[in-house]
């Protein structure tokens, strides 16, 4: 009986220590950017972004304990061209009626604060693929309103066709839309109170 009580106490103590060393942050969408860049007709690059997204970051005692989850509202896509934005939401591309969300969930975080490596699963439409973002993380600060914040920046390159974004037209010079899409993430996160 004493052994069970001691084991239970140890288990509860470890759980309390873990809870004390774990912090949960919410992404601050007003101070964050989820952007992308893709080649257009092999002449220039088109920039775009998603303006609505949510996410949580859980930090533990070590960098490798960190977990990131993000959900993006596909309908919030903006490329500064109304007709193009409308086309991107249709079946040729994101098919927002069937697939309204893009999600990302980290599976491994390594490196250092200055050379951060975030591995995870990105889901677009009905396809999930492993992606790796490389970037950096800032130190925590307390803002003038008493909120604890930190930031993460990262970038990656994906092949859009792996996510069933297969629309393309070919002109004499090559594809109208490039296959490779560069992702650019810049975010602030606020400690939940």
Strand order across the largest sheet: 1-4-5-7-8-9-11-14
Tertiary shape: globular
CATH class: Mainly Beta
Number of domain units: 1
Structural class: mainly beta
Number of strands: 14
Terminal Cα span: 39 Å
Computed Rg: 20 Å
Structure report:
The chain is mostly beta strands. It has a single domain (22-191), classed as Lipid/polyisoprenoid-binding, YceI-like (Lipocalin), CATH 2.40.128. It has 2 helices and 14 strands, in the order αββββββαββββββββ. It has helices at residues 2-21, 82-89, and strands spanning 23-27, 33-40, 44-50, 53-59, 67-73, 77-78, 101-111, 116-124, 127-137, 141-142, 148-159, 170-171, 174-175, 177-191. The protein has an 8-stranded antiparallel β-barrel. A two-stranded antiparallel sheet has the order 12-13. The radius of gyration is 20 Å and the shape is globular. Residues 170-175 have low confidence and may be disordered.
Keywords, separated by commas or semicolons:
193 residues; mainly beta; Lipocalin; 8-stranded antiparallel β-barrel; two-stranded antiparallel sheet; 2 helices; 14 strands; 52% strand; globular
In short:
This protein has one domain: Lipocalin (Beta Barrel), CATH 2.40.128.
Which helices and strands, and how do they pair?
Layout: H1 2-21, E1 23-27, E2 33-40, E3 44-50, E4 53-59, E5 67-73, E6 77-78, H2 82-89, E7 101-111, E8 116-124, E9 127-137, E10 141-142, E11 148-159, E12 170-171, E13 174-175, E14 177-191
Antiparallel strand pairs: 1-4, 1-14, 2-3, 2-14, 3-6, 4-5, 5-7, 7-8, 8-9, 9-11, 10-11, 11-14, 12-13
